[in-house]
Structures are given as C-alpha cells and as structure tokens.
Design a protein that fits this description.
four-stranded parallel β-sheet, globular
C-alpha cells in the first residue's frame, strides 16, 4: 500500500504528506493464520515510512513514537503532560527534551483541548517549546452534529482567528529565539512557576498563578512569562 501511495503522490507532484496514525499506533492482528504481533507491526510501519522517505516526501504525523522520529519533520498532538494519575506529582517535558531541535511539534489543538484559559495554553507552549495548534473547518459547527465527526464540535475557523493570531504572536516572540534549539534544563522555581533553558542560552520562566511571583530577584506577572539570555 505504501508503494502504491508513493506512486500516486509522485504523479500529483506532492512533496509533503500528513500521516494519521502510522507514526502513533502499532496494531496487532491475532487471526489464526495471519498473526501479526507488535514487533512485526513496527517493522511494517518502518517499511512504509522508509518508502515515503526515499521518495523525498517530508512527513508530518500525529503522536510521533520513537520508531518514526527519524522520518518526520513535524509532529502534531505531541504529549504535553503526564497521564495525571494520582501517583504522579508533576509533569516534565521529557519528550520535548528528546525531540526538540530535530522535529517541530505541537500539542493538542487549543479549540479541541481541555484548556479553558488561553493564557495557560500559551504558557505551556512556551514551557514545552511547542507551537500553537488549531483544528479548523470552513463549514459551520452544526454540520458535523450527529455524524462520526461530532467530536469536531468547535472548529469553524471564523470564531478563532483573532485568538489564534494573539496566541501565535505571543508564542512566536519566544520560539523565534530558539528555532532548532534543544531544551537542556527544566526546573520548578515555585508553585506554578517553571523555567526552561534552551541550548543556545535563551531561557523562559512562566508563571501560571493568578498573582505575581518573585523568584531569584525576578518578578513574573500573573499568568505571564519573562525571557532571558537572548542573543543580540
């Protein structure tokens, strides 16, 4: 199937492709005479990714498990938190510290996420080095009601453009300073206050609290951030 897909894409002169779950899910098949376990499933996925990569296609994909990372230029729906089980005290950007500088990524689309405060989404993007993401359609939201796409409950683009522009400008004001730079340090300075340091020396301290916080002589306004180490 990958070879057929590659041939069809080349006929259309397409240079980039967005994959749905090839980089995210390894599915087993337990049919008696056609058993495919997860190890073999990974090999099949790698072969498909190899075929597309050798065709010169740049690839974006959901999730981005380790077997797929070397093939991808962009990842959507990357994890931006732990599982939040009660046994876990904090979330740390471990995944981001591994992949940042090699692959660009976003978390869940803001308009389909559990965030109720857009400023907190902005702060987590800055803390985790993640780009802003939205899912949009041109049609009205009620067009997908009672269909298999009813999870797309708030995706008409017209209601989100102004907020998306604001989010992008805020996040890009920092991420443009650390383009292709990895994360080398992450630390909690106080409750709701975190610092992320990038390998080019730029740092960002985010404050999720509803009141200003001062740490190490630096005051961060409520639900805001400060940067340091910017290159001239």
């Amino acid at each position: 199937y990958a070879a057929l897909m590659k041939d069809q894409l080349q006929q259309l002169a397409i240079s980039s492709v967005s994959l749905r779950d090839l980089a995210d899910q390894l599915n087993s098949d337990y049919r008696k005479h056609h058993l495919v376990d997860r190890t073999e499933s990974e090999q099949i996925s790698r072969q498909a990714l190899d075929s597309l990569y050798e065709a010169g296609l740049t690839m974006m994909a959901d999730g981005g498990n380790v077997y797929a990372l070397s093939y991808l230029t962009d990842i959507t729906n990357a994890p931006l938190s732990s599982s939040r089980f009660k046994i876990e005290d904090e979330s740390v950007p471990f995944y981001q510290m591994v992949v940042r500088g090699y692959v660009d990524y976003t978390g869940a689309p803001y308009n389909l996420s559990t965030y109720t405060n857009p400023q907190h989404y902005i702060l987590q993007c800055l803390e985790y080095g993640s780009h802003v993401s939205f899912t949009w359609i041109a049609g009205q939201n009620d067009k997908v009601k009672d269909t298999e796409y009813d999870y797309l409950y708030a995706v008409n683009y017209q209601g989100w453009l102004e907020l998306a522009e604001h989010m992008y400008e805020e996040v890009n004001s920092v991420l443009k300073l650390v383009q292709d730079a990895g994360i080398i340090h992450h630390e909690q300075w106080a409750e709701g206050v975190y610092e992320t340091v990038y390998e080019n020396g730029v740092s960002v301290i985010v404050n999720y609290n509803r009141s200003p916080v001062t740490v190490n002589g630096i005051t961060i306004a409520a639900e805001s951030f400060v940067t340091g180490g910017e290159r001239a």
